Amino acid sequence: MKLGRSILAIAAVFMVVGLVLGLVLSSKLGIESNGHADNAPMAVRTATAPSEQSVNVLADYSRALVDVVSTVTPSVVNISTSRTVVKRAPAGPGGPFNDPFFRRFFGDDFMRQFQEPREEQSNSLGSGVIVDGGYIITNNHVIKDADKITVTLSDKREFEGTVVGSDPKTDIAVIKIEAKDLPAIKWGDSDGLKVGEVVIAVGSPYGLNQTVTTGIVSAKGRANVRIADYEDFIQTDAAINPGNSGGPLVNIRGELVGINTAIFSTSGGYQGIGFSIPSNMVHVIMESLIKYKKVVRGWLGVSIQSINKELAKQFDLKEEAGALVSDVAADSPADKGGMKRGDIIIEYDGKKVEDSVSLRNMVAATAPGTKADVVVLRDGKKKTLTVKIGELPSDSVASAGEYNNALSGIAVQDLTPEIRKKLNINKRVTGVIVTDATDESGLRATTGSPLK
Question: What is the predicted pLDDT for the residue at 449?
Fold first, then answer.
């Protein structure tokens, strides 16, 4: 009995001692780990701060963007247009008001008012940029058929705009307002742009004036996107939306390098692909519109097409570059300059010819009467021709030699003696050579272009 009590007493002592030791140890561990008493809250760990060097780099970049934007935005304007649209009632019978019951009840005079044409006001928004001499550059589609053009400056002043001239073939228009001390943007060299270079777009998307977005030059020389007749677009991922049309694309020096004109979209909104007309092309168009009230373009007088892989192989060319002459118009500048079918134009006025589109644009930008040196490959040898450029008729577009017809997407060229020899084609065979066929050549149904 006494032994049992002794064991219980010893056990009780050990329990008390263990409890005390546990409290002491836990208290020490809590203090060492948290620096607080047991009942104090756990400390919050502070996130590691970025390095001062990183902060300084981003701060410099941010300040630079702010500086460039503050320089550019005073030159950017909002353009709102209005025009009268005549809506006519559908011809012929149809609709509830043509029912004999209504005519008998209301009378012919009352019913006639529903068949008369009605005039409605249509409004649209766009952007523009002030350039040399107070002129404003925008897109042709922004001011097309407008009865009234209202220009709102960055300082909220409003002026009525007058169209100086427009060019649907490049989608460029020039307007003018009667105002003083207008902040003109500086012109930049779009040819000097590099893919990957930072650019800034400014405009009024959805009527939100002075909206600024940034991005990079995604590509240059984009053509055949079916926006205009003459295409040499700068592609950018700077956000461009409806209402940005006509606004400027500027480089990091705040210089105008492009006029934003379209986006590639399946939804109607921004999807990362925008197109701007290069400033060098815009400047030429603007000067012609101001001076002549129309665009005067150079004319060579040839049908051309780009050198593709198959043609490069046929003519033993080292690269797929240049423009193949498939026809020469009689008494044209090219004809008078000695150009022949089968010539491959590789250089124009000191510049390399990449394809038929680049050549067409270079010729169009050349003032009529100018003498240009044209380097061609003939029978595998280089030959320099001097051609006096003529004037392209105002209702014409220089042919690229790639015809759109029932077999859209087929590229052809004349069967020249040189090609006949290379392909060992009998002299009795006549016709044209199919040099290329895309997916649009009738092999499958196509859908409408998603360009907006």
Answer: 33
The tally of domains found in the chain comes to: 2
At position 336, the amino acid (one-letter code) is: K
- Owning domain of residue 152: 61-88+125-295
Which pLDDT value is given to residue 47?
78
Name, in order, each residue with C-beta under 8 angstroms of 184's C-beta and a sequence gap of 6 or more: 75, 130, 131, 132, 133, 134
- Average pLDDT of the chain is 80
Q: What is the pLDDT of residue 6?
A: 58
Q: Which residues contact 76 (CB under 8 A, 6 or more apart)?
A: 127, 128, 129, 130, 154, 202, 203, 210, 247, 248
Return the number of other C-beta atoms located less than 10 Å from residue 162's C-beta: 12
Q: Is pLDDT larger for residue 214 or for residue 411?
A: 214
The pLDDT tens digits of the residues spanning 391-446 come to 987 655 554 443 333 344 455 566 677 676 666 676 655 555 666 555 443 323 22
Q: What is the C-alpha to C-alpha distance for residues 440 and 234, in angstroms, rounded to an integer?
A: 24
Domain boundary among 295, 327, 354: 295
Read off the pTM.
Answer: 0.70
Active-site residue set = 141, 171, 245
